[in-house]
Amino acid sequence: MKRQLLCLAAAFVALTIGAGNASAAGDPRWEETGTAYTDSLGGGQGLASRADGSLLYRGLLDIPLSLRIKGWNHVGDPDIAEGHVFDAYQGPDTATSKMFAVTTPSGKRYEYVHQLNPGEKLNNSFAAVSPDGQWLVAGEWGDQNRLQVFPAPLLNPATPPTGGELKEVWQITLDRPVRDIQGCDFVTDTRLVCASNDATGSLFPQIRPLLQVDLERKLDGQPVTGAVRALFALPQRSVCTGTFETEGVDYDARSGTLRAQVIQPGVCAVSTSVYAYRQATG
Fold it and tell me: Which of 24, 70, 196, 207 is least enclosed, having the fewest CB within 10 Å?
């Protein structure tokens, strides 16, 4: 009997460990492959992979003076699509709009301003462009049951060609609430990964989890639902103690590399850890 109990205990431990990498059968199992570091002020808000495999980082120091003068004092997790860089900007607590800046491959920047809808939070945490380049997904702070969807500026012909007003077209309705999403990126046409800064453990058992959102179909201009699962807790490793903060996430489809950022606590907050993952093959 004692041996049987030990076997059962070992099996339970194995299942528990496995649950930290994937939440259900059929979900990908991500293996950590390395850690890099970037300075938080120059790159701690988000990252995106370029076509050549290099990384674009965004931090508070990256906000151009011309945009700061207009009141855009926060930049979120960016994305790159067809050589265009998409940045998510927000203003002060009194703001009634948010803004997406798109920089073309030639370096020309266009500004697209979205007036807040009733009940919409001013936060503009990230920009994630669908693989076909037609739709822009964004998110708010706090507890949310949705992700916002806009036509992708410049790439979607429904948008003004040189900047202007950007209206929300519809939403991704989530099957369960999420909290404090800092960044999302597409893995496939129907799957996103999102980094949550939720440290309560009340919505998901993992602390600061990486979430997976599976869409019922690819984005097509109509309302769509998304099924949310927690994949694993993002690492909280540092020589310093205190509160960590999850930030941006990026998936490089060319290399199959997933990256997620975590700002270190205390005096180590000047450094942001960038964890890299690849899907397990076995």
Answer: 24
What is the residue range of 101's domain? 31-279
- Alpha carbons 226 and 192: distance in angstroms, whole number: 9
Count of domains for the chain: 1
Q: Kindly report the CATH number assigned to the domain that includes residue 144.
A: 2.120.10
pLDDT band at residue 224 under the 50/70/90 scheme:
very high
Long-range contacts of 81-85 (CB under 8 A, 24+ apart): 81/129, 81/133, 81/152, 81/155, 82/133, 82/155, 83/51, 84/154, 84/155, 85/48, 85/56
Show the tokens assigned to 107. 């370096």
16 found inside a domain: no
Determine, yes or no, domain membership for 1.
no
